[in-house]
Write a structure and sequence with these properties.
The chain is of the alpha/beta class and about 700 residues long. It is built from 24 helices and 22 strands. Strands 7-6-10-11-5-12 form a six-stranded parallel sheet, with helices on both faces. Helix 15 links the parallel strand 10 and strand 11. It is globular, with a radius of gyration of 27 Å.
Length: about 700
């Protein structure tokens, strides 16, 4: 998009050019035309300005400032990111000077704001003097114009209403709390230690101080419990629930709801609670059998399913008028992924007097849709109210963890907004790992040994930028080496028999189950994470290269054995990793579930490992947890190859080894602190970051923020 298209007298040309730059989605054009049908006398400059507003709202912001300087700052970040994204995703090299500059939009921004603030736009914008939700007649206005002493903002009406609901509901559900005394914390810690089996080395299971604080406060307060990976958020909830049921026998009749924004996250929370119950001593389970049974039989669901969407009502069955029973306890996980409208729908359906515990990591990526509600609530919380507990000690990443130390550095920059906290890291074209922080001495005074590794690797061998062709060749060489560990996937997949049930009756020697576990464990050893979908470092290009290399290695291996490979017409191959990209409710498959392609005869199937439903029985026989679905019954657009996945899709997953490709251009909209933090914390044993000194620094020091406007 050049300055000629910015100056065009055709709104459609302006919209189409911005859409081509990926600054608008297709639906925006229809919405804009509808707006200007409702209000026909909008000047062209203001029409263009409202087009820019929609572009910013598409980014997850729920409001835009009607101040030229503030708006220009927001638009500069967006526009410069779009230009960088365009340059990085096309095959040929493009000169950045071919694109318009932010200054070229100045007159559109200035004139548009002036027009909206001084003229009558009541046909499409309702002015709100206070933070109250819409009356019925106001729902026809798509926008809210909120003028306050701090400035004027333009919201989508649905987002303004959701903001108001969250503010009102949070004041009802969350109250100022207290910090427990040291003696209370000590007693809580010892009680839980006495409830749990010791570790294999005889060491007691001891919770951390902040965990004990949350468990104590959870007996009388509703809480937001935050913390990074491995800090024990689910462990805290388990003992909050146990203690509540133990001290309030009437709560055994209460409903306990476990929910998360995605089915995958909901399943994982339930599995984590079941794992926690397995730590409890047998005598505790026997003596508290009703408590154990109730917690062990809990089911989980998506928030959407929990609220029960009704087609006849055109909304959720549980809502402001028809709330859940008061005798209810809610545990909501992965709250950073919940968008503002879903957060509002959930909170307004929960009655005063119910118990609610919200879990999440505010430093991970925010929701795909609008809002960053968890972060906004915690900002408010820090300013006065006290209804959150931050867990700050990780069981996964301790003082001997390179990954943990790097995650802490990245998070510190995000917390403090202080870029001087950034510690430089040296990227090399070799495979050397770099430990920038000296290990903490152990009790004997010796330096502790790091238990995991971070590799900082660049594809460039000198300071000269690579051409697109050179970069693609180096990526191909890197992928060729990376793929070798997965070369045996096709051979292992050929030995899987989907028709067998996995029960003892059909697998008496457990050989089939052993083969299934072997290939499943191999599939979890490593993953490539990308910020982008398109471009040389995007998942589409990298998955194509991985599949090609694995198939060529498999073909070569077969040739040595005097055999040939006959690829199936379906386009899938044995051992191919696939990820579900759209929920398939009828099969209990969810966005983010990953499986392996195996064949039953000539029929390609997807093999997944899913924990069995509670109380499920298979004629009294035990079975493994593998399930198989013919790929023909799943919509083709709900599946994609998963050797490389986006960092967004990786949230909540763990792999032994992670390789992460960062964008190459500073200013890229996905070169952010949250992208980097989320990606590296998926790794358990090693992470390899493909970047360079400058792009890594840009990622650490670029903290993406959304303008949500929540005020408690």
């Amino acid at each position: 998009m050049d300055n000629k298209l910015i100056a065009t007298e055709s709104l459609d040309e302006f919209i189409d050019a911005l859409t081509e730059m990926r600054g608008l989605v297709a639906l925006d054009k229809h919405l804009l035309h509808l707006l200007f049908e409702i209000k026909k006398d909008v000047p062209l400059q203001t029409q263009k300005f409202l087009t820019l507003c929609l572009s910013l709202l598409d980014d997850g912001n729920t409001r835009v400032p009607l101040d030229a300087s503030q708006f220009t700052d927001m638009w500069a970040r967006k526009w410069n990111g779009l230009v960088t994204l365009r340059i990085s995703t096309v095959e040929e090299d493009i000169d950045e000077s071919n694109f318009a500059s932010v200054a070229d939009f100045a007159h559109i921004i200035r004139d548009g704001i002036q027009d909206i603030l001084t003229n009558d736009f009541s046909a499409i914008m309702e002015s709100r003097e206070t933070d109250t939700t819409s009356i019925e007649d106001a729902l026809s206005c798509p926008f809210v114009l909120a003028k306050r002493e701090s400035g004027a903002h333009l919201y989508f009406t649905k987002h303004f209403d959701a903001k108001c609901v969250i503010e009102q509901s949070a004041k009802i559900l969350f109250k100022n709390g207290h910090t427990p005394a040291d003696k209370e914390i000590e007693n809580c810690t010892q009680k839980i230690a006495s409830m749990c089996k010791p570790f294999g080395n005889g060491k007691q299971f001891l919770i951390k101080k902040r965990q004990a604080e949350a468990i104590i406060r959870g007996q009388t307060e509703n809480l937001v419990i935050t913390g990074g990976p491995g800090t024990g958020k689910t462990t805290v909830v388990l003992y909050i629930l146990w203690n509540l049921l133990e001290s309030h026998s009437d709560m055994l009749d209460w409903n306990i709801y476990l929910a998360a924004p995605s089915g995958k996250a909901a399943d994982r929370m339930r599995e984590s609670l079941i794992d926690g119950l397995a730590r409890i001593r047998e005598e505790q389970k026997t003596n508290n059998e009703p408590i154990f049974r109730k917690l062990n039989e809990l089911e989980s669901s998506t928030i959407h399913r929990l609220l029960r969407f009704s087609k006849s009502k055109g909304g959720f069955s549980f809502n402001r008028e028809e709330q859940f029973p008061k005798n209810s306890i809610f545990v909501i996980d992965e709250a950073s992924m919940i968008d503002i409208e879903m957060f509002a729908a959930l909170l307004e359906a929960i009655p005063e007097g119910a118990r609610i515990f919200i879990l999440g990591d505010p430093f991970q990526l925010p929701s795909v849709d609008s809002g960053a509600v968890l972060g906004e609530i915690l900002k408010v919380n820090e300013s006065g109210s006290n209804f959150s507990v931050k867990l700050n000690e990780s069981n996964r990443f301790d003082d001997r963890s390179n990954i943990g130390k790097l995650a802490a550095e990245i998070k510190t920059v995000a917390e403090t907004k202080d870029n001087t906290k950034f510690v430089p890291h040296k990227f090399t074209s070799s495979d050397a790992s770099v430990n920038e922080i000296a290990p903490t001495p152990d009790k004997t005074g010796n330096a502790a040994t790091f238990k995991d590794k971070v590799f900082y690797k660049q594809l460039e061998t000198d300071s000269t930028p690579l051409s697109k062709k050179e970069e693609d060749k180096r990526i191909e060489n890197f992928i060729a080496e990376w793929s070798r560990d997965f070369a045996q996937l096709p051979a292992l997949a050929e030995n899987i028999h989907p028709e067998r049930t996995g029960t003892e009756a059909s697998d008496t020697d457990h050989s089939e189950t052993a083969r299934r576990n072997e290939i499943w464990q191999l599939s979890l050893t490593k993953r490539i994470l990308c910020a982008e979908r398109r471009g040389l470092r995007g998942i589409e290009n990298i998955n194509k290269k991985v599949c090609s290399k694995i198939k060529s290695l498999w073909r070569a291996q077969k040739k040595k054995q005097g055999e040939t490979v006959q690829w199936d017409d379906s386009g899938y191959f044995p051992g191919q990793l696939l990820i579900i990209t759209k929920n398939q409710e009828m099969f209990k498959l969810y966005n983010g579930d990953t499986g392996i392609v195996v064949f039953e005869g000539n029929t390609p199937c997807l093999m997944l490992k899913k924990a069995p439903l509670q109380n499920s029985e298979l004629t009294g026989k035990t079975r493994d947890d593998f399930v198989f679905y013919p790929l023909s019954i799943l919509p083709e657009d709900s599946l994609t190859t998963a050797f490389a996945i986006t960092i967004h899709k990786s949230q909540g997953s763990e792999y032994k080894h992670v390789t992460m490709f960062l964008p190459t251009k500073i200013g890229h909209p996905l070169l952010t602190n949250q992208i980097l933090y989320t990606g590296i914390t998926r790794a358990k044993e090693s992470v390899t970051i493909i970047a360079n000194d400058d792009t890594f620094k840009a990622a650490v020091t670029t903290v993406s923020e959304r303008n949500t406007g929540i005020s408690l």
